[in-house]
Amino acid sequence: MTLARTGTLVLAAARAGRAVAAFNIITLEHAEAVVAGAEQAGAPVVLQLSENAVKFRGGRLLPIARAALACAEAAAVPVALHLDHVKNPDLLRLAADAGFGSVMYDAAHLPYAENLEATRSAADWAHANGLWIEAELGEVGGKNGDAPPDPHAPGARTDPDEARRFVTDSGVDALAVAVGSTHAMTTRTASLDHALLARLAKNVDVPLVLHGSSGLPDAELAAAVAGGIRKVNIGTALNVAMTEAIRTHLTPADPRPYLTAARTAMTATAKDMIGALNP
Ligand code: G3H
Ligand code: ZN
């Protein structure tokens, strides 16, 4: 199977009223497990690498990007590569040559006008270099280990009228929206503002992206897709599965038994969550 492109997968999902799962990878085992989970689910998938994960890899993008690319190219289902939560313009500019077909440029922490200006410039560059680009408006909290703000507080969510203007004025291809989810939740207890999601889906004519999806139970994930979410970002759920498996199977010297258990656990998580999106 050849490498797919995120934009193609998301638009095909949108036409079918479905969503594509996009999993954040940190290690080779994450990438292998996500591809195996997608193959078992018989669904396309996005492998995404965040700026934070690149920092964890000593700031080197290529070793993990090339590993993910090799996993994608060998997959039996369409797999796309996406560079996620990019704030550093220097990293953004490495994306195309490293094999990524899409990026998420994250200036959501900035005031509206500055977010728009930075995002428009990133979008101009991305399009000139053949990349599909996602941006964020209204900040989904809990990034970088920050204490998450209350996602239900007034002003913490994406305003539908602002969202429409932001997409038109920035030229982005997809929009990440704050509708009640929070990054890095280790329990699946969050709930979304479905009325707001419905207004956003009506107002915005590019696909909507959900971040912080690990904190949502299956029924909320399915409802989010039914309400118009077309790309669902999942990271922490894999890390919870990996960590639990390693804790249970930790051996004194050989890493293979516990990494095998970790990969198996992450495969099951990926398969189950892909299934939950499009029941
Ligand atoms: O961009 C990545 C996602 O928003 C992952 O969030 O780790 O809470 O699932 P999560
Ligand atoms: Zn995110």
TrEMBL record:
Instruction: Name the domain of life.
Output: Bacteria
The cofactors it requires, by name, are: Zn(2+)
Pfam families for this protein: F_bP_aldolase
Residue ranges for the region (Disordered) are 140-160
User: Which SUPFAM superfamilies does the protein's record reference?
Assistant: Aldolase
What is the name listed in the Swiss-Prot or TrEMBL entry for this protein? Answer: Ketose-bisphosphate aldolase
What species is given as this protein's source?
A: Streptomyces bambusae
